[in-house]
User: Which sequence fits this backbone?
């Protein structure tokens, strides 16, 4: 897929509802919802955006005012890139979102439309071109994350089987041909749109599956709390208690649960009766009965 952010459209009008939030940030936040987003990912994301702005600036159809706008945008992105490693990271994503928002507004004035605010959460139907552009943008996001996870020592975190299914769906939609084989042209067009709606549903399903897999797998280990015995949640207690959980990653069946007392949060160990690999889960609150 392309190194720029999604497909860029030279449409005078685009009939689509846009999300109020930035796609790439929403997606990355969902992937790293239980951990800090690696600086490498943020750095890669900003540099990718800089490359996109350079590509737009170099287009022959862009006049001097447009080139000046893109040069200023590139400067803003480079200044932001300098700030991400500073001590003050407050409102980091808000500052980046503001730059992209201004970029998007400038693009619209230049009749250039992108997929930056087009997400699976948009409450709308998509034409084939719009759906393809959005899927392609997400694929580019996934490939960006993969390029960062490999040097971080977590090459297995990106489930390539799911990625290949997403790419296969993209190719199917790209090769889709609408045949006017019905004497009722309006109904035929509506049926074609319903086909795109089914494609959107399939993509959203695969994207959710990918996100869940990414969150559960870290450092080649699987985090899964769904195998906790039900009796844990049937404690006769009037107050919630904090526990550590450990289980065997080979059998994924053996569980040890123990309460955390003040002072022993970092030093607790669980003896499962053997030396097979275990995962140390972070402490969490379990409700009383």
Assistant:
């Amino acid at each position: 897929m392309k190194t720029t952010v999604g497909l860029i459209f030279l449409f005078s009008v685009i009939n689509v509802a846009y999300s109020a939030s930035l796609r790439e940030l929403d997606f990355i936040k969902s992937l790293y919802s239980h951990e800090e987003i690696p600086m490498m990912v943020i750095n890669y994301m900003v540099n990718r955006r800089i490359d996109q702005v350079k590509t737009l600036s170099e287009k022959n159809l862009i006049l001097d005012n447009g080139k000046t706008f893109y040069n200023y945008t590139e400067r803003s992105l480079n200044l932001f890139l300098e700030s991400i490693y500073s001590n003050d990271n407050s409102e980091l994503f808000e500052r980046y979102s503001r730059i992209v928002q201004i970029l998007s507004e400038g693009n619209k004035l230049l009749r250039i439309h992108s997929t930056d605010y087009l997400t699976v959460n948009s409450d709308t139907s998509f034409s084939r071109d719009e759906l393809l552009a959005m899927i392609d943008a997400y694929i580019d996001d996934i490939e960006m994350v993969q390029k960062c996870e490999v040097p971080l020592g977590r090459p297995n975190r990106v489930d390539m089987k799911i990625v290949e299914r997403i790419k296969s769906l993209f190719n199917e939609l790209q090769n889709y041909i609408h045949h006017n084989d019905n004497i009722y042209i309006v109904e035929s067009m509506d049926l074609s749109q319903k086909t795109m709606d089914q494609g959107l549903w399939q993509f959203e399903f695969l994207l959710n599956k990918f996100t869940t897999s990414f969150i559960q797998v870290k450092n080649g280990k699987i985090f899964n709390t769904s195998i906790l015995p039900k009796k844990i949640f049937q404690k006769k207690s009037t107050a919630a208690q904090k526990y550590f959980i450990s289980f065997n990653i080979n059998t994924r069946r053996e569980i040890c649960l123990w309460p955390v007392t003040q002072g022993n949060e970092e030093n607790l160990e669980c003896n499962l009766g053997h030396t097979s690999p275990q995962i140390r889960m972070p402490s969490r609150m379990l409700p009383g009965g």
